[in-house]
Input
Amino acid sequence: MTDNENLNELDENEAQLLAAMSVDELPVYKAYAGTELSSTSQKAKMFDIVEAIKKVCDPEIPINVYDLGLIYKIDQNDNGDLHIDMSLTAPGCPVAGVLPQQVADAAAGVGGVGRVEVEVVWEPAWSLERLSDEARMMLEMI
Output
């Protein structure tokens, strides 16, 4: 097989993969936890929120979801509510319905956090480049 044939085959495979992952077909996962804070409550520090989220590990890979790079964004409102965008390693992830709820519960358990919404997003797609240095070292030991 020539280099051009290899490239064409790769392009065709990539096109099929992208078509299979079209936005219309990707699953939607959201998880909720926590309760509204009183107006006198002090909102949590981001460090404490991240540390709580780091206690949630992917059951297939013994690395926490934060160091895996699955947490894309944490927005904290003035009232202590959080909106967290996270991804999964793949759309067919067998724990897709569990991990977002675990993240929501962990974040909601931090003092000064109100309502928590965790939304699974698919863009940008997760890749190994999102791993923290600590996660890379842990994967090398496995």
In short: The chain has one domain: 28-141. The CA atoms of residues 16 and 91 lie 15 Å apart. The longest strand covers residues 71-76. The chain has a mean pLDDT of 85.
